[in-house]
Amino acid sequence: MLTADLHTHTTYSHGKGSVEENVRAAIGCGLKRIAISEHGPRHMFFPVQWPELIKLRREIDRMNSVYGNQIEVLMGLEANLLGDGLTDVPEDTSIFDFVLLGYHKGTFPTDAISRGWWRSLVFRQRAGAHAADNAAAYTHAMDSTEKLLAITHPGTYIPVDIPALARAAAAHGVALELNEGHHSMTLGDVLAAKAEGASFLISSDAHRPDRVGRVPQSLALAREAGVLDRVINWDDGNGTNEQ
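The structure corresponding to this sequence follows.
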């Protein structure tokens, strides 16, 4: 069973529900953990700045005091990959329980490789173009990002060399996300990542409370690829791979 949904959004960014509504939805799904993982501060359209992140941390602490006997509420951050090894993770990561990292098209370019990402969004990079360089950009970010748990929706918006990304992620103890909102990884991608020793995180990426914990397509993909034993928020009944 799915034990946690660690990638959900609220009205702090562009979600439609409150923190408490997401928490109550997670309890209704029978989850053991729920996380609010809002966008980093350098997202162009939905940034969450430091004062709001502090406020969110306090609200999450309050949720634990209210609902702690039913569920654990965590605070993540869906940080933005800004360039080659560059992110918008705040210098102080003490308020976060973990960090997620992904590329989003709502970020300004900061170096040569991210300017290429902008060009690709406008002119459409051909499939596979610069995929190795993009995987290296993620890898360099893994080297310096504290509390990094997973790469979100790998392959969304920019092509990524999945085997190379999976090798780096496995070496860093970072999972690759199977995202219910962005079906960026194909069966072939998951099998290639599996061959490189990758682990996986299944997430709803819910922007509404009624989507929290709802991951049918991602779960079906994990089953088909035979990677449920590598999904860090899945309990096979023996508690062997739950985190």
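Strands lie at 4-8, 33-39, 72-83, 86-87, 99-102, 148-151, 175-179, 200-203.
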